[in-house]
Structures are given as structure tokens and as C-alpha cells.
Amino acid sequence: MTVHHTAVVMGSNTGAPRRVRSYQNYHQGRGWPDVAYHYLIDANGNIYEGRPVFARGDTFTEYDPTGHFLVCCDGHFDQQGIPTAQLGSLANVLAWASLRFGAGPSTIAGHRDYAATTCPGFHLANLLADRTLQSMVEQRMAAGGVSLGMLCGQAGLDRIAEIEAGRL
Ligand SMILES: [Zn+2]
User: How far is the CA of 59 from the centre of ligand 1 (A)?
Assistant: First the structure.
């Protein structure tokens, strides 16, 4: 399981859905089938489904993401700390994936552990290096795991409208 950041300093979170779509457009413009990551998380902890988990992710750098579960947090964590809600949702996604795919917290790493990049940024990488994130994931797994609800169709569009209105 590999943790990434968008390397773009967050503006208002009301723009998060637009940013997620822009990454998808940008990545598809490179000829990739979808946004590079399986899940993306905004500053308020909203979780966006990206590329289907059965499909290999993609990278601008030199490493092979085959078999990796790629999660990307919106923000530039060389330049800013990660918000509590965003970190909590990151731990939720990783705990969910650990149980669903049998990967385990020991497989959590930063992009920079595989390639020449600072991704996922200094502040988030530190939370991996000191095992803060792994401990959060282990606590969630020990407590019985995490279930993620999935919103599709109008329910998904309604949720996006709430995020864009600044209510979530
Ligand atoms: Zn990355």
C-alpha cells in the first residue's frame, strides 16, 4: 500500500471535487485509463474512488506499481501539515484495504520509498517513519475494521454538491 500526495498546496476544500476531476483529466490525457490512484482523500477527509482496485496504478516516476494499492492525499506535505480529518480517513482507507486485501500495515510505505521523489511530502512521510500512521491503522483493525460506504449515481452527485458548498 503506497501513500502519495498531490504536491499541490490545498486551496479551499470546496474545490476538491474539481481538483480530483482535473487529475483524472490530466492523467487520461497522458493516455492512462483513469486517474493514477485507487483512492484520493481531500482535506476534510472525504474519500474519492479513483481507478478500480483491480487495475494497476500509474506513476510519473520510475517504479513498478503492479500489485500496489495507491492512495493519494490532496495537499503538498512538504509545505503543510496534514489535517486531522484527512489523516483519519487515510488510516480508515488503509485499514479497510488491509482487511479486504490481506495486505497488512507492514506494507504501508511512501512513494519516496520506491522512487526518486519527495512524495508524499515531509510531514506525511514523517508520520510513516515514526509509525504513527501504521499504529492508527492497527488500532482500527483491532477494533473490528472499517466499513466504507459507497455512493453512486445521484447519491454521489448529492455528496459532491455538499462538498462543493462547503458543508462537508
Ligand atoms: Zn506519489
Answer: 7
d(CA 103, CA 143): 17
Rounded CA gap, 97 and 26, in Å? 26
**Residue 164 and residue 14 in contact, taking contact as beta carbons nearer than 8 Å:** yes
Q: What is the pLDDT of residue 26?
A: 97
pLDDT band at 97 (very low <50, low <70, confident <90, very high): very high
For the chain, the domains span: 2-164
Spacing, Cα 27 to ligand 1 middle (Å) = 13
CB-based contact 121:102 (threshold 8 Å): no
Domain 2-164: give its CATH code: 3.40.80.10
* CA 120 to centroid of ligand 1, rounded, Å: 6
Q: What is the mean pLDDT of the chain?
A: 96
pLDDT above 90 covers a percentage of the chain that reads 97
CA of 4 to the centre of ligand 1 (A): 4
Cα(65) to ligand 1 centroid in Å equals: 11
